[in-house]
Task: structure prediction
Amino acid sequence: MRRKSISITPLILLALACGRGKKDEQYKTEKVDRGGITMTVTATGTLSAVTTVQVGSQVSGVIARLYADFNSHVKKGQLLAELDPTSFQAQVDQQRANVTKSQVEAANAKITYERQSRLLKAGLAAEADVDAAKTAYEGAAAQVRLGQAQLHQAETNLNYTHIISPIDGVVIDREYDVGQTVAASFQAPLLFQIAQDLTKMQVQADVDQSDIGRVQVGQPARFTVDSYPDQEFRGRISQIRLNATVSQNVVTYPVIVEVGNPDEKLRPKTTANVTIDVATVRDVLRVPNAALRFRPDTVDANAAQGGRGGAAGATGAAGAAGATGTGGTTATTETTATTTTSGTTATTGSEGTSTMSPERRAFGMGERRRGISGAGGPGGAFGMAARTPRSVCRPSGSLPIRPPRSSNRYRSVRESPTATTPKSSLATSRSAT
Result:
């Protein structure tokens, strides 16, 4: 009856160990099925209109009037703003007066030249006087043309005080208000930003140099935006630009993805999370990636690390079995321990395979999981560091089963003679059983 109790009780304790787990543990199962698998490249980009025009001013002045605001729909040639034209109108009037003066002087020089020409024919004027009159006349005519050019420039500057829309579209940005001064010294200041057609958008995604080789023009792409996290938008790659950007030694290439926006949900300058399908296979066996990952419990990892430090050998009773080693030996060290316990022999090698009886293997599994080696006290039967076989079930985070030292029922197993027990004693024990 004693042997029967020895073989059944460890199995009961093992079942209790398998049932002890974290209360909040949840498991999700997925079936291995057939379907399509797609390789993707992910990137982050910014939405913008296909055509965006920045409207500026070529002259300096104070903004007198505004005829367009944010989100205003404008037409080509429509007046958007007007600068104060006072100074420019004065320049036009001045140039007109200069042109009139030049024309009068040119007419007078022409009359003088014609008079000197007649006197020369009559022999009443010197040829030098005729040449001087001709030079004065040609200079006056050139001065008229110069005045006319200056007048045209003044009129052009006056027209620049009227800011005109160059395209049909929507005003998405306005930089100045009425009364502000526009200074156009070296470059034209930006007044308005107009998007031509918001029903056609594009995403400029920055793709890393390690993935750009798999991206091709025409490949499908999809993306999401934070404003509509549950909706996925789809488009196609229209251009892969060569002007790479280097930021902190990271090289990225701009990839343009065109997408339709008929309901105008997408807005300019919105951040898009882009996914590009670079390769696809059909009708293959597939398993979720999460099923292939294993993350050991922190408690188990620390216990295993502590077990490796003293897993090379044993002292005391296990030392008589021939198991020797030094601290720091890993679990794959070639170590063999032989223990005689109630007629059961256990041999453990580098891979942790055991030839002991199922009852003893199930009972001793908890200690081997923790990396216990040596026989410094009662039940010290193993001098090895063996990996836990996969067939044993123990929930993550549960403690190994260790029998109480006061139990006589387990003392008969764990305090049995070591490998140095004479064979005659073993034979007597078997006969008694």
Notes: The longest helix spans residues 86-122. The CA atoms of residues 103 and 144 lie 6 Å apart. The first strand starts at residue 33 and ends at 49.
